[in-house]
Amino acid sequence: MITINVEQSVLKDEQKLPKDLIMHVQEAVNGTVPMKKDGVIEVAFVSEAHIQRLNRTHRGKDTITDVLSFEYPDQKDIIGDVAICYNQAKRQAQEGILKEVVDLLVHGILHVLGYDHEKSGQDKLMFSLQDKIVDLLL
């Protein structure tokens, strides 16, 4: 079972995810995804500059991105981090910002749990799980 902690201090009040929605994301992931590990996933909404710096440092890409995930397979308590750039999410949202942010949140969590759409054969499984979870929520 996972627990999700979300840091939203960089967001304006109207941009923040409601606590009950975060709880529903946690419940939906726990009820849908076969758990390979248990622990806490720390999620932070970050600025464009911060996510660009993370992307450059960890992926060698000097660009702003929407979401980054960091898996910590050797840790027991905090099993990963997810960083989401709200401004980038807003720019690319086609079905509304709430759906985009929830989609990115679930996407990042799945990466922390070991799913990787860039590995051959895993893309359909990961995106199928992501769509199933998001559909349960919205």
Automatic annotation (TrEMBL):
The keyword ATP-binding does not apply. It is an enzyme of class 3 (hydrolase). Its cofactor is Zn(2+). Zn(2+) binds at residues 107, 111, 117. Its EC number is 3.1.-.-. GO terms for cellular component: cytoplasm. It comes from the Bacteria. This is Endoribonuclease YbeY. It comes from Candidatus Uhrbacteria bacterium GW2011_GWC1_41_20. The gene is ybeY.
